[in-house]
Automatic annotation (TrEMBL):
InterPro entries on file: Phos_transporter
The protein, known as: Phosphate transporter
Membrane topology summary: Multi-pass membrane protein
GO molecular function, one term: symporter activity
Keywords assigned by UniProt, alphabetized: Cell membrane, Membrane, Phosphate transport, Symport, Transmembrane, Transmembrane helix, Transport
Catalysed transformations (reactions): phosphate(in) + H(+)(in) = phosphate(out) + H(+)(out)
Similarity annotation: Belongs to the inorganic phosphate transporter (PiT) (TC 2.A.20) family. Pit subfamily.
Subcellular location(s) per record: Cell membrane; Membrane
One matching Pfam family: PHO4
Main location as per UniProt: membrane
Membrane-spanning segments: 63-82, 94-116, 123-144, 156-178, 199-218, 224-244, 464-490
Species this chain originates from: Dendronalium phyllosphericum CENA369
Length: 496
């Protein structure tokens, strides 16, 4: 079987197609599960007809994905066990990808069927934790729990915890502020059945719907992109391990920076007798959540940096490297960039010039390894957009009818969506995955509370229960599916 110009065995080709199909299915489900929140307000205020609203929202999700930076995509990958990321083409790597996607899809479909706006971000992160825990339990020589990047997980959990609080509080305050500054009674009335609002109100609500849809695409859409890139790097490293469009000038600059970095690292590394495999293992161990820096860390970092410089010296294009060499080079770059980042966070660089040089080097490395082809963006964008257009209704009914006791007013819809748009956009800028569901649903609840419209406590209890259960349930799902998938790929299909 030949795919992307490379010959694959039938079993490997099957796994590639299956994995890509699951990744796009995850984004499809994400579309009708999460993006439905964005259209709830414009539908329930009669601003747009449902069909027009979901097509409009799907289109702006697509645009959001296409213009995204990729920061969130690689932030998600940073949560995965480092040995599985490096060896994603192994049997354990395949099992990891399948477990993540299958467990996330199962929970998303279950909560969608019940009409509960649960978080796809929580779902995926819970699955990642489950895989990490199961990997540490099933792998020889591992301490239970060391497969989870707890520091990165804490950073993500903080953003996921704070975002609904921000949504509730800010939407409530924004509605109260609007009542003081915008004295237009029609803005605060419930819509008349079947009657569209005044033009200026329609424009405001369409604008906020557009913003939420765009922000959702630029943030949530990246999760699928990150997983797809992981799949492609593992199965087709010759094509996707490194950005083959890297120009000669960038390669020359990378070699020059590597050469200048080596003596800086060697001055902090009195131990220099490390072999290639020993140095890679040293950096892999350091990048584990429990890893501690020592003299060997700097020695290994210097050794791997020299390897990068030697491999790229005299090259004007990535295509001049042998295909099997590209995968090895990506591993070196991934380990070096990750190690520099972790050392920086641990304040191991005391000299300002040294820190600046190494930070610049890390950025140069990531330009070659952290890239997303346009066709991947288009594929994810279309999956997200089609999902929005097909399965939106269950979640829309919950957000529009079951959170507050009174009908959603124009001002409430605009306030909730404006806060959601801003919060998600800020999280996207900082590379943090947040939940569109949590921000917008809590924003609607906040406006209902501020407006004294009353809250339907049964719905809120169900929402909170779904939010609380998402992480532990997905940890269990991720662990169970990883163990099952690992058995399948190792015992049934014979992968190593």
């Amino acid at each position: 079987m030949e795919i992307f110009g490379e010959s694959l065995t039938a079993s490997t080709g099957f796994f590639l197609i299956l994995a890509l199909g699951l990744a796009l299915s995850f984004e499809f489900v994400n579309g009708f599960h999460d993006t439905a929140n964005a259209v709830a307000t414009v539908i329930y205020t009669n601003t747009l007809k449902p069909t027009v609203a979901v097509i409009w929202s799907g289109t702006w999700n697509l645009i959001g994905v296409l213009t995204s930076t990729g920061a969130v995509a690689f932030g998600i990958i940073a949560l995965l066990p480092v040995e599985l990321v490096i060896n994603v083409g192994s049997g354990a790597g395949f099992a990891m990808v399948f477990a993540l996607l299958i467990s996330a899809i199962i929970w998303n479909l279950g909560t969608w069927y019940l009409g509960l706006p649960a978080s796809s971000s929580h779902t995926l992160i819970g699955s990642i934790m489950g895989v990490g825990l199961a990997n540490s339990l099933l792998s020889a020589g591992h301490v239970f729990g060391e497969g989870v990047n707890w520091a990165k997980a804490q950073e993500v959990f903080t953003s996921l915890l704070i975002s609904p609080i921000v949504g509730f509080t800010c939407a409530a305050l924004l509605l109260l502020l609007a009542k003081v500054l915008i004295r237009r009674p029609e803005l605060y009335r419930a819509p008349e059945s079947g009657k569209a609002p005044p033009l200026w109100i329609r424009a405001l609500l369409i604008l906020t719907c557009t913003g939420v849809s765009f922000a959702h695409g630029s943030n949530d859409g990246q999760k699928g992109m990150g997983l797809i890139m992981l799949i492609l790097v593992g199965i087709l490293p010759g094509i996707f391990a490194l950005n083959i469009n890297t120009n000669a000038q960038t390669i020359a600059q990378l070699v020059a920076t590597s050469r200048s970095v080596i003596p800086v690292l060697e001055r902090q590394a009195p131990i220099t007798s490390l072999s290639g495999q020993n140095s890679a293992d040293e950096l892999s161990n350091f990048l584990k959540p429990t890893g501690k820096a020592n003299d060997k860390t700097f020695a290994a970092l210097a050794f791997e940096t020299k390897e990068i410089a030697d491999r790229l010296t005299g090259k004007k294009s990535i295509t001049e490297l042998a295909k099997d060499e590209r995968g090895l080079l990506r591993t070196d770059m991934y380990l070096v960039a990750g190690t520099i980042g972790k050392l920086d966070k641990q304040n191991k660089f005391t000299d300002a010039k040294q820190e600046e040089l190494l930070s610049s080097y890390k950025t140069q490395l990531e330009k070659v390894t952290k890239f997303i082809p346009n066709w991947v963006k288009f594929a994810v964008a279309n999956a997200l957009g089609f999902g929005t257009m097909i399965g939106w209704k269950r979640i829309v009914v919950t957000v529009g009818e079951k959170i507050g006791k009174d009908h959603l007013t124009y001002a409430q819809g605009a306030s909730a969506e404006l806060v959601a748009m801003t919060t998600i956009g800020a999280a996207d800028y900082f590379g943090l995955p947040v939940s569109t569901t949590h921000v917008l649903s809590s924003g609607v609840a906040g406006t209902m509370a501020a407006n004294h419209s009353g809250l339907q406590m049964d719905t809120l209890r169900n929402l909170l229960l779904a939010w609380v259960l998402t992480l532990p349930v997905c940890v269990l799902l991720g662990s169970a599916t990883y163990a099952a998938a690992l058995y399948m790929v190792l015992q049934v299909f014979g992968f190593k």
